[in-house]
Description:
12 helices; 6-stranded mixed β-sheet; alpha+beta; 6 strands; 329 residues
Amino acid sequence: MRNLLLLLLFAVSVVAQETPAPQLPAQDAIRIKEFYRLASAIQDGIWPSWSKVPAPLMLVTSETEFLTHHPAPPKDMRKVGEDVYARPRQFPSNFQATFPAFGPPAVMVVGEPANTASKTSTPWLFMVMHEHFHQLQWAQPGYLEKVNGLDLSRGDTSGMWMLNFPFPYEKPEVARGFSQLRDLLLRALNEPEDASFSKLVKEYMEQRKKFFAQLSADEHQYFSFQLWQEGIARYTEVKAAEAAQLAQYHPSEEFAALPDFESFASYGARARSSTLSELKQADLATWKRTVVYSFGAAEGFLLDRVHPKWKDAYFQRMLSTDSYFEITK
């Protein structure tokens, strides 16, 4: 019996040793390589010193998670290539999120294009730039302490409060106030004449103050935080697409050969209009938290015109963009 057990243990060991290592799919490897190539070319022109932030990425496929560019890969991950580690899938394959999955630094955890809202390779690339901006947010000194200091978790230690905070999205006066604010923001962005633009901006700031005044202190903090974090991440996603277009960035031959490739010139030309078109349709009562992406991005576009150097103070004015919209006499 003892010999039989030893034989079985030996057989299991041999099978384990012969299990082939999972391989990062070829097209995914091309996309990931292109992300790091693109980021190195444009990131510091959008946010100074962005390139100094670690940028680990974990790709979630249907069966496997592949991690790269991490300074200390966790022990449960197996090395399967040059700076590529793998383990069986644990996160949803449609994930698009950034958080310190293994402790700092924050990791971009993203699915393959077809499994995410991106659908195809070029939008996926700029979605990853969006997630990479979250890494810049996470890397700021005291970021997590300041987020916890908002005291909005209400006992939730999982971080899901950021998605599930009980904001009064369906309250009629709040939804109505948001719609009015949204329309005024779009009017201002579409106004070419400087004098009329200035009047609309002042009106917008007054209406914005009224909108937030009807919220409780916690509700106000939550919505402001979401605009600062997710809205400006979408703004950065659009600016990255435009930067690639303006710089006439040329993707690698391998990326351009992908069957779902869209030229950066084409995507960059429509990135802003797509976000503004999304905002036109945004309904607070039904879209709930997702309105912050297009709305916050549009506020970023407005700030580019009102305060061209607003980004210089973005990380000093942590977790809220409210101070940029205060009316000055």
